Amino acid sequence: IMITRRFFATSVLAGSAAVIAASATSGLAKSNTPETKAALLGKAAHQVHYKTVDIDGVSAIERASDRFLAHLLYRFFRRFPRLALEDRVHVLPNETESTNSVVVAEPRETRRGLPGDPDDSHSRYIEAAIGGMVIGCLYLPNGNPAPGPKFDYKLRRFERLRSYSAELFELEFPVAPVADFNGMPTDLDVYAPDRWRDDALFRPEVRAAYAELIAMGWTDAIRLLHPEEHVYTFWKYFRNAFARDAGLRIDHFLLSPSLRERLEAGGVDKFARAWEHASDHAPVWIELDDG
What does pTM read for this prediction? Predict the structure, then answer.
């Protein structure tokens, strides 16, 4: 995600960790309280330039992700070339042995982990106040096989996201929960819906959980911009899925009402999926006006 006076967000989602290019900010500290979030929003406005890349574990930075990162940084520095020397790339490893995590670097975070389960050690949600808005970057688990314990855990995570999203929504901040939801909301988001009905990414419980978020008032940015199109963000590595365009849309940008009003454009950089050693996810991006 890159946040500037003009918000341009690109998320390359290949599974687990996140690489961030961000300019330094000052005076931001961790806090989960609404009052401090409000203060952080004011301080962070127009200070930060920020971008994330999700990759298949930190070790993959030196191999498959190189070209993705170069592509994202090219977008960034093409628009803001004078910032090139000021920006840094950060990696924050997961606190557990699992590589399925989402991380963030400077600017300072406002929350790490979804509330609702103090014993959940998987760092799969992280949030920061950036450019006058709150960005929550998450990874929801795959959940297969379903039914089963992994699927039950996924549904609990969805419920915790729904509950916390309701708190954020009521605060009327500009907020965007983004990244890998591991779920296709509708038949339009999967190349062969009937083949996926019993999969943990497309079971009725998952679609219902996502629909609850939309009913709450969040806007699915890509679907709003492309209401009738088959837009995919993920293609498996086997059975020639990418060449057949046998894809899924599992990576989403949800926007609060104030950000929806600023939404100008969005899409998927599908061409990046064709690169050698590419992620099975393609970059997803949106643009907001200056606000």
Answer: 0.73
